[in-house]
Amino acid sequence: MRLSRYFMPVLKETPAEAQIVSHRYMLRAGMIKQASAGIYSWLPLGFKVLRKIEDIVHEEQARAGHIAIQMPTLQSADLWRESGRYDDYGQEMLRMKDRHGRDMLFTPTAEELVTDIFRSHVGSYKDLPLTLYQIQWKFRDEIRPRFGVMRGREFYMKDGYNFDLTKEDALHAYNRHLVSYLRTYERMGLQAIPMRADSGPIGGDDTHEFLVLADTGESEVFYDSEITDLKFGDREIDYDSHEQCQAVLEEFTSRYARTDETHDEALFNEVPEERRRTARGIEVGQIFYFGTKYSEPMGATVADADGNRVPVHMGSHGIGVSRLLGAIIEASHDDKGIIWPEGVTPFHCGIVNLKQGDDEADAACEALYASLTALGLEPLYDDRSERAGAKFAGMDLIGLPWRITVGPRGLKNGVVELTSRRTGESEELPPEQAIERIAQIYGRASV
Ligand code: P5A
Question: Which of 104, 166, 169, 386 sits between 20 and 30 A of 288, alpha carbons compared?
Fold first, then answer.
């Protein structure tokens, strides 16, 4: 993309309403625009990161054997009356009537709708296990929407639902989700720690939240510092194996890690004092096992091997896709701007032309742009006739992990400059080598 032709409405001033750094940078970098309280338009740069995050979620769901569907945002209240949640859900649910006077609502979550799909189409234990998921807009009429996309009213969520014959199988689905979430967040450059939590209006006994440690987090958390040494890495897991998933769950949940809702001071005090940590965290996901809470009242049953109809065991699993943008920025920035992890960056690298209009510099930038594009990479080429300082400040703000700087002086010596946004370190090297390095970083075969 050439910056001169892009739509990236960068703000010079720091918007007064933004209280935390991620919200400030998202507004300043022209990623989002507030439409009304807690409701945002996604401008090109923000939308691109949202899509990257979504792609990772889809890939990791596929790896775990989960199947994508898409359900509507508007639902009939009738299903929610069947589960008993229509009255319970309270003011967070946005309710409306259609022209026939029928009660409708904007989906805050979709346990009822997916249970209805299941009961209409699945009748035998042979069709299990089954996990369906979607990535869809949700609406919760939060009393205090704030911090930009972090606590929105309209927000983008991955919501998945497992259907299993037995409690044991459903607990495997729970463990499998935990494993797959660990991998998902790590690919986004995040450490998200599973912590024992409270199930709230979704219900159920077993639930873990995934928290990213950040001073601006809304939850108070208590944990054993050993937990931050754990990495999922690139281990190969057989997601169908109960033992393997269980082992990962045990590894990642055996140490003390709880949100304030479930915090137990006496238990916490058993952790050696030097390892006890109290901090703040951003909840980027939550997994639940709730058994037959929905299947029983809604009649979602299957015939078991003996032909008896039994209600299925279920759980649900959510990732705050839009919230993740804020969480990633909170975890990865400096005083100049965002520092995108390679896994989610909107463009793979920036190209800064120090002397736009200089034939040699222009030609070198065009050549870099063409080669990177041919490798399937997306560079952002700042081809505007701006001062170098303004171009650097812009690149630092939007946070692309790598920048290639091209100027007449370097070109005389046959080199361009490759700079890491994270470390600030620069290296002079011939353009072909810069391309090769970028290709390697992103796992693309070089020319
Ligand atoms: C699990 C999926 C559920 O709704 N039902 C379907 C279950 N869980 S949850 O914990 O309530 O939400 C899942 C994740 O969505 C994000 N989230 C939000 N993001 C932005 N603004 C909000 N107002 C908001 N509310 C929830 C969180 O990341 C949460 O973990």
Answer: 104
Ligand 1 atom with least separation from CA of 324:
28
Q: How far away, in angstroms, is 338 Cα from ligand 1 center? A: 24
Half-sphere exposure of 159 (CA within 13 A, CB side): 21
**What is the distance in A from the centroid of ligand 1 to the CA of 101?**
30
Can you give the pLDDT of all 447 residues of the chain as single tens digits? 999 999 999 998 888 889 999 999 999 999 999 999 999 999 999 999 999 999 999 999 999 999 999 999 999 999 999 999 999 999 999 999 999 999 999 999 999 999 999 999 999 999 999 999 999 999 999 999 999 999 999 999 999 999 999 999 999 999 999 999 999 999 999 999 999 998 877 777 789 999 999 999 999 999 999 999 999 999 999 999 999 999 999 999 999 999 999 999 999 999 999 999 999 999 999 999 999 999 999 999 999 999 999 999 999 999 999 999 999 999 999 999 999 999 999 999 999 999 999 999 999 999 999 999 999 999 999 999 999 999 999 999 999 999 999 999 999 999 999 999 999 999 999 999 999 999 999 998 765
- Determine if the pTM surpasses 0.85: yes
Please name each of the domains of the chain with its CATH number.
3-338 (3.30.930.10), 349-441 (3.40.50.800)
- Counting other chains too, the contacts that 126-130 makes at CB distance below 8 Å and 24 or more residues apart are 127/302, 128/163, 128/164, 128/165, 128/169, 128/302, 128/312, 129/162, 129/163, 129/164, 129/165, 129/169, 129/172, 129/173, 130/67, 130/162, 130/163, 130/164
Mutation probe of ligand 1 site: the residue of 323, 325, 328 with most atoms within 8 A of C-beta = 323
